[in-house]
Amino acid sequence: MKCKVFVALVVVCALLLPVSMAFAADKKTAKAEKVLIYACSGDVERLDPGDVTDGESIQRMDNIFEGLVEFKPGSTELQPGLATSWQITTDGKELTFNLRRGVKFQDGTDFNADAVVFSFARQYDKNSAYNQYGEWAYWGYMFSDIDRVEKIDDYKVKIFMKRPNASIMTSLAMFTVAIVSPANAESLKENAFKNPVGTGPFKFVEWVKDDHITLEAFDGYWRGRPALDKIIFKVIPDPSARLLALEVGEVHGIEYPNPTDFDRIRANKKLALMSEPGMNVGYMAMNAGYGYTDANKNGMKDADEPWEKTPGYYEPLTKKQVRQAINMAIDKQSIVKNIYKGTASVAKNGMPPFMLGYNDKVADYPYDPKRAKQLLAEAGYPNGFEVTLYVMPVSRPYMFDPPKIGEAIQSYLGAVGIKVKFYQVDWGTYLQETQSGKHQMCLLGWTGDNGDPDNFLNVLYGANSTSLGTAGNYGFYNDMKAQELLSAALATFDVKKRAELYQKAQEMIHESANWVYIAHSNQNLVFLKNVKGFKMNPTSRMFFYPVNIE
Amino acid sequence: MNSVNPGGKTRAGSVTLRRFWKNKTAVFGLVILTLLILCAALADVIAPNDPSPSPPDLSLALKPGFWSDNAVPGMPLGSDALGRCVLSRILYGSRVSLSVGFVAVGISLILGILLGTLSGYFGGWVDSTLMRIVDIMFAFPALLLAIVIVAVIGQGLDKAMVAIGIVYTPQMARIIRSSVLYIKEMEYIEVQKAVGSSHLRVIFRHVLPNSLAPVIVYGTLMLASAILDCAALGFLGLGAQPPTPEWGAMLSKSYSYIVSGAWWAATFPGFAILFSVLGLNLLGDGLRDILDPRLKT
Amino acid sequence: MRWYVTKRLLLLIPVLLGVSILSFSLIRLAPGDPARTIAGEHASPQTISAIREKYGLDKPFTTQYWVWLKRVLRGDLGRSIVSNEYVTREILDRFPNTMELTFFAMFIAVAVGAVAGIVSASRQYSVIDYTTMGVALFGVSMPVFWLGIMLMMIFGVFLKWLPIGGRIDTLIPFRRVTGLYLLDSLIGWNGPALASSFRHLIMPSIALATIPMATIARVTRSSMLEVLRQDFIRTERAKGLSERVVIYKHAARNALLPVVTVIGLEFGLLLAGAILTETIFAWPGIGRYVVNAVRMRDYPAVQGCLLFFALTFVVVNLITDLLYVLIDPRIKYE
Predict the structure, then answer these.
(1) Model pTM?
(2) What ipTM was predicted for this assembly?
């Protein structure tokens, strides 16, 4: 009997111990290390800066890698990066860069012209042994005017252009042409980007899939060691969970807070909400039906590459009237007011208002369901039709809650007789399928990479960008006349001329109505008050080098 | 079984009925089930609003219900993230849940009767093989199997019904089979066979009607599980698709707004599920007490 | 006894075979060209034919099955379409996470449920009995994902006592040995880690444990009631032993026997419930993995998970059956 009591006592103690430990737990153990935990909404796709297109991957890459030039913090003006100075010939076809000396990669090897040539060549040179390891989509969008990159000497490189390109310098500040370590690529080959090595302030430690990525300070960084010892990018997909984690101090910063939580955030003295206009656009694209296969991979539609039906070809959407009707059936004002909750402005064009060449004279389609129904009837669909809408599974800077917006659109279109069904897949597959034109309608958007209107209008709405498999033009607007305007605007350095050409192009795009432009959204981040030094960028890129925790 | 006399169902029937009314759990369960059926049938009449107004009035999003001053008149339980009335969606949702439940159980009944009768009646290798298959299906957790079936046949409410129906078939088959085995031993069956009645005749006229009791009991309990599983699939986004008002889907769409303070959109649909399932479980338990306490093991 | 065990183990084989056939055929039923699905959307026609050859997808069904089975027996469950990692690796990485959750939940379910059932039965028709059985009925009818949300709402959001996601505080230095964080914390003598893992574990386990707990309570109660009615209890009482001894020493032990089998069956429900619980609480286990895999049509991963779940369930049931045989005194004398 007595031993039974004893056993019971032991069991009770054993149970109480962890319980008491749990509730007495002090989360703030004395740390010599300064670790910043930043909660993101999704995990990385890949760790190769040349091969990524999504914001989550880009964020991590921007702290490991650097490029020849960079943007000044908070703007789209350029400053020297790994290149200290540069010259461009008057015809715009040769760019010479003087490289910074004394810079080392995180694996100890030297940064020099060989590394630069390698980083570029692996993307454009089909004979390069490393070309097979990536898809290089961004190269196709932004850099296909580059013919080749050559080493002049150990600290000088020359970029030769096929055609002059007005935005090439700002494009060079993009992550796509960040300089990677050739030594690392050679030793690890196809696994090189499971362990990325660059020249940036932080080096890669580990990637635990779907959970977190850890970076630690690079002592040998050429600008000097960062103040933070470690950054942990933690994946917390649910925005409420992210906010709660921030509130209890489990993380130091979060992205994509839920707009409905802003009042709560503002009322909390321990949090700092950072909010700025974003250089982005969120839209619903309607697949007008035709694209082309870029057989020679030159990023342009050539005469010998015929138009073909996209896999998502859908008869009603090939008619302009139908697309215009859909534009008029959706109450964008209400969506921006009630779903974006005032953190965005209604969009009527495919790029934000402060960009060069923005055409304010374009008259947006009004919210007019009656007229929409008329148009549908005129087009031959008095009873509407069924259609499938691709909905993004993740938050984006231009669209916080795509499923909700999808449902709102479903409801609006239902009122004019169009029945919407949804299709959802994981983000990687979503991008692949839309790039291949498999969708009928899809929700997507774009954040500008370099502050140049070409980066929006040409990449997103140019006919060249309807290449099946690598398309950026999800409405499959294939008007070659508009493309001529866009190409001409890129080839000239005359700012006034460019603006004129872009304005004309926007009129044509608007008339064709392949897109319902929804909003230009603010970028929103929340940090704990004691996190200092972070600066927001119009490109939504995140640089943690100047950040410190006090 | 209460009665061995095949024709004596009427007398036993009235005895059963009286026992039913005396059993409080069963009555309570029946009340809830009736309430549910009424909601489903009369949703058009009782619901204060359209469950999926098209076009939506987004300015009414996430407004609280009768307990708050900020309430929208006409939406006693508040509104969800797209400005839709929570109460109306719950009422229409009862239609969805009930139809899935009945169809799924129906499917499992038909397939289960097929398998169970063949197994129990003919015995031998037919029995062994079929029961082996049933055993194998039991090796998988029900929800997982349903999810995988949905992965194969596609998402949607109708597909969810079929998936759940298939998943419940083994259990139903076993029930029918044991009942069939029991009846088979009865003398009068031997008599019938001696007299020369065809197998089919024996099955339909004598074996099946006497298997009614366990089918009713387990059918009710399985209806409860079907509603739960339908909500689970809806919650995972694999069952009902928007804008269909299904309780599980309503939960998954709304729980991220709890942090913002809008707790009602996620709480009330959950209560709806709880009470429906509770009612059916009560009814099933009560029926089990009445029809055969031996089934309790 | 030994013969019984051998018989059970032998019977396992056809069941496992059947499970493998079912898993295999289910996935093959999916629409679309499996080679294309495995190769991924972006693959070139050459890659697709290479995959078709490698997996033997142009051969007849039985051959395909045989090839697949041989690979599975070697431990190769194929590569995930989404992540391109080996499915076996991904499942094994997440398996301990789910196991920790499930076992902890089972522990709670049995401890609380069995005790409740016994107490209820010994005080039949009392207030305690009715309340417990009422609560149990609620428990059985409760949608586990809703319960999880409610717990999260009350304890995570309103009261802020407990964290609402993940397994452990990111800042705490922690070494993963077995993957069972409670165990690993003890092994590493890591106090803060133990506390943090425990705090993260409580809510999901309680949510998960509720339904099995309720069922176990009910089954224990009815089993106990039966035992109490039996003759030998009357004999014990007649012997003059105190009520408490009668109940706990004799009746309970006998009543718990059938409960052991129920535990095995309930385990299946726990696994299913884990799927939902892991989704809500962002628990990186197999449940969340399989839901994701289904959503992304990652068929190799789904297939692997199916097999794994079934295997676990079958093994657990085998163990409980054997345990039952071991404890049941009646069988011992056979």
Answers:
(1) 0.82
(2) 0.80
